[in-house]
Design a protein that fits this description.
alpha/beta; 4-stranded parallel beta sheet; about 55% helix
Amino acid sequence: TVGLLGTRFTMEEAFYRGRLVDEYNLQVLIPNADDRQIVHDVIYDELVQGVIKPASRQAYLEIIDRLVVQGAQGIILGCTEIGLLVKPEHTEILLFDTTQIHAQAAVDWALSD
């Protein structure tokens, strides 16, 4: 069971969640409507502008904690900017930073024979 954070589209539409469920048999939790709005707004109003606010980090950590209470065993940072705000040292839950995962996969592919 994983929690998914990202833009409203990423959290609410099936293109991302559906693949995780269909291809990897994961249960995917998303924040409630109010929390989804916070996650979305911080991405567009702050992170894409290069603004990192401690209050926004705290809000994200509280949202993550609520997903953990619901059963999340890890959190997918499903937007490239979220890793700028929330890092492994900020929480005990396992974070899957999709930017880092994609970068590593690209390096592995480039170095493979």
